[in-house]
């Protein structure tokens, strides 16, 4: 089977993250606006081309003050760097519908190669006859690698915001 174009179904997809807060708990958030260009054979992703774009202004941690701080120059600086992008460069099968997806991730004007785990969850037709596929994506990045270094030292030791950001995507796409 050859690669086919797929359109992300943003209503049935999510881009989520979590990060350590005060070195004792995780804070979770999401990005509510994102899009992807996917050309793939879902049964064999090794030849896929994937480009993913996230609107950083759409960050949502359920706290408006924190979200505004994340949009500011202390973090994402959305005025100068409005998007986060990912472009695949290599995909390797690990068997059992799992893949290592490597690509160029750009945040805050800095591009680094990152690898994420992708699981092909399956395919099917929705009630209207549209062919759909599902994937989960998991991984982690160091925010300091992208110049996101704002922090505050705690009086008890440690820092307010962790460096490791866990990333989790649930993606549903429709054949375009």
TrEMBL record:
This is Polyisoprenoid-binding protein YceI. Residues 5-174 form the Lipid/polyisoprenoid-binding YceI-like domain. It comes from the Bacteria. It comes from Cytobacillus eiseniae. Belongs to the UPF0312 family. It holds the Pfam family YceI.
């Amino acid at each position: 089977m050859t690669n086919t174009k797929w359109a992300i179904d943003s209503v049935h997809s999510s881009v989520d993250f979590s990060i350590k807060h005060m070195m004792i708990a995780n804070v979770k958030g999401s990005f509510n606006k994102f899009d992807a260009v996917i050309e793939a054979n879902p049964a064999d992703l090794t030849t896929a081309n994937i480009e993913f774009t996230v609107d950083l202004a759409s960050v949502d941690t359920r706290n408006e003050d924190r979200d505004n701080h994340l949009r500011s120059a202390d973090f994402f600086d959305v005025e100068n760097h409005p998007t986060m992008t990912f472009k695949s460069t290599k995909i390797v099968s690990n068997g059992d519908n799992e893949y290592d997806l490597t690509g160029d991730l750009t945040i805050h004007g800095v591009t680094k190669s990152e690898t994420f785990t992708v699981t092909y969850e399956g395919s099917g037709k929705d009630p209207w006859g549209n062919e759909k596929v599902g994937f989960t994506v998991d991984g982690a990045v160091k925010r300091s690698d992208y110049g996101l270094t704002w922090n505050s030292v705690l009086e008890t030791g440690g820092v307010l915001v962790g460096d490791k950001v866990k990333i989790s995507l649930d993606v549903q796409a429709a054949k375009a």
